[in-house]
Amino acid sequence: MIGLAAGGPPRPGAPGGPSGSVPATTAVVDDAPRTDAAPTRLLRAWYRTGRADLAAHESVHGTLPLPGRHDHGWPGRLVELVHSSGLAGRGGAGFPSARKLDAARVARPGPILAVNAMEGEPASAKDQVLLAHAPHLVLDGAQLVAAAVGASGIVLCMAHERLPGSLGVQAALDERRAAHVDARAVEIVGPPGRYISGEESALVSWLGGGFARPTFRASKATPLTIRRRPVLVHNAETLAHVALIARHGVPWFRAVGPPDSPGTCLVTVSGTVRLPGVQEIALGTPIASVIGDADPVAEVQAVLVGGYGGTWVPAGLLPTPFAPASLRAIGADTGAGVLVALPRAACGLVETARLATYLAAEGAGQCGPCLHGLPAIAADLTSLAHGYGDGDVLARLQHRMGAVDGRGACRHPDGAVRLVRSALRVFADDVTRHAAGHPCPGRAHSPVLAPAGHAGREEHRWRYGP
Amino acid sequence: MSAVASSQTLWYLTRATGIMALVLLSATVVLGVLTSGRVSTVRLPRFAWQDLHRRISLLAIAFLGVHIVSTVTDPYAPIGWLSAVVPFASPYRRFWLGLGAVAFDLLLAVAVSSLLRRHIATRLWRGVHWLAYASWPVAVAHGLGTGTDPRLTWVAGLVAACVAAVLGAVTWRLVPGWGRSPRRGRWTSPPPVWQR
Amino acid sequence: MAIRTLTLRLRVDPIACDAFGYCAELLPELIALDEWGYPVVADLEVPPHLVDLARRAVRDCPRRALHLEKVPGRTR
To answer: Quick one: which of A199, A220, A211, A241 has its CA closest to A114?
Structure first.
């Protein structure tokens, strides 16, 4: 594999590693039999040849369609294009991208565009793979959006720990500078790569010289600012889609995916599969076929959809299409495009308890209910999962989840509560047995999800990272 | 004769209001420490303790004001208005009186920042308010150093009681589990008890 | 017929809040404390007879974590 940003070729042999995080370089899809010929738009065949350099990128996609100097109607047209395309953010919140652009266009002074490639979700590798293989798409999208909103600058935010491995992105920027492609300079910055530091307000807080912790906003409509200058935050994958929409238009974008959520998206599949990694799928593809394409090793009991703050989807519901509306109907969400397959031999409660403990430690520690509630919930869930919970444990869990949900400054506690609630629902049989003191042998299964925790919450860790 | 008499009155006024100001300042500090430790009793809920702290502090400043005015207007000692705020400006008992000016300056900062609390950043207010912890021992030193009154047993006893009260309050506050102060990331009190 | 009005609501800044609990003492009708001492604000509009107390609670919060906001409401 020539020119991959880090590590070697994809490893088809090993099932989803015990670390619960996915190596950034495994973008294996083409080798496996696909259930449908989903068009690969973002990733194309770059995983075969490595990073697409500027020449290869332009030969496939054409040059960057920036407007002429006096084309004053262009920003409006681009926003209209994005609006008609129905593109929604691919960062996890799924907010309609055109609305964000609209709000930023009227902002004075010109906003700063922050490209969010933080990817704090350990089970997600899509932004890393995208930047490793097709950085020019992301950078094109950034230039287009920056031109549309009259941005005063562009910052590309990557987790501090991953900066050494991001030489490919820097090389791409150097190529563009040499070829005078970009209208605006792009600065690469490295905030601490904690779970919560990729949250919009946390990112903006860090960019403003503060700590990478979420801030309180009276309402989501108030724009994030750095010393009065508004900041527009877009996920890296979203910008890549904008780059293609600007070239190929709306009908092309909408040709794939359901009408209310068109296009393709990147998902990261891991767990009990032989081919873990990032896939590009059409929205609306059934979860079962996405997992099938990754070649499950054993029978899949349930799939964690969205991320660590996501939802468990039981085997019976796996034919559900991976699309916002269909997932919402079963109480789930696309989230950060994470799909983790849990084998029947493992215990869903034990895995969830481990995640809950991780999430409890990964909060910013700013808001009382989250700071105190999540560890309490995690401790109770752990005791339930291992069969030594007392008689009150379920009632206590339900009470505390209600007490913590929605009472933080950000959605972190909400995600944790959602995860635990879905586990109690989907693994209800296990819950009854474990509560009676009979934990299942799945406890002994090697961890399917085992995120490495970060060190403590001292203030310097939120500014400079570990 | 009347000049001597009025000077005597002013002298008594200075000493009396000085002692009262010290007692009230000590009470203010005690109440402030208790408030930050979330003290709560059956008769007085937490917000009432904070209210008490504020009101006593205003009383202390009032007495302090009279104390300063009577000191400066007293013709006996050459203490001008300037030396009330500029430490060590007066030649009369320069050091101990200067301490009084120091204490007054610090308290002035605390008072002004508290009146303007809603308009300044919380961090700034917190930082200035901590100066109160500096002003109190300075005030005590000033009281013990300037006057002849500490030679009187009851005055010495009063000052000792003030010092004991403040030290006791600070001890209560610092011992884990006695006071309660949830701080970001560090929960000092025992883990919460489940109550249905 | 629905008339658009502005109602007053209390909102807590959970980052600034340090669980002093004055708000719950002054306004038990609208604010309760959870098991860790942090305020749970009822999702109701502040009735006219409690507005003064609400303003006092906002003013007395040592961390200025309580806010009184005008939000659009609907009354018939």
So the answer is: A199
Q: How far is C73 from chain B (nearest CA, A)?
A: 28
List the beta bridge partners of residue C71: C7
Domains of chain C: 6-72 (3.30.70.20)
Mean pLDDT of chain A: 86
Residues B72-96 have pLDDT tens digits of 888 777 777 887 888 887 777 788 8
What does the pLDDT look like over A62-78, one tens digit per residue?
Answer: 888 888 778 888 888 88
For A1-49, what is each residue's pLDDT tens digit? 212 223 333 333 333 333 344 444 444 334 443 444 556 788 876 666 6
Record: contact A367-C36, CB cut-off 8 A: no
Question: Per residue in A272-303, pLDDT tens?
Answer: 999 999 999 999 999 999 999 999 998 999 99
Taking an 8 Å cut-off on Cβ atoms, the answer to whether B118 and C35 are in contact is no
Q: Which domains does chain A have, with CATH numbers?
A: 44-253 (3.40.50.11540), 348-447 (1.20.1440.230)
Instruction: Return d(Cα A363, Cα A76) in angstroms, integer.
Output: 39
pLDDT (0 to 100) of residue A39:
60
> Which residue among A366, A392, A396 places its CB closest to the CB of B184?
A366
Contact assignment for A376 to B192 by CB distance below 8 Å: yes
Bridge partners (DSSP) listed for residue A203: none
Tell me the nearest-neighbour CA distance from B58 into chain C, angstroms: 16
Q: How far apart are CA C58 and CA C56, in angstroms?
A: 5
In this prediction, residues B133-137 reach a mean pLDDT of 91
Three-state DSSP state, A142: helix
Q: Most B CBs within 10 Å: which of C13, C15, C17, C22, as the mutation test of the B interface?
A: C22
Can you tell me the distance from the alpha carbon of B106 to that of B111, in angstroms, rounded to the nearest whole number? 9
Provide the phi-psi class of A150: left if phi over 0, else alpha when psi is between -120 and 50, else beta: left
Residue whose token pair is 């002093």 = C20
**CB-neighbour burial class of residue A331 (10 A; exposed 0-12, middle 13-18, buried 19+):** middle
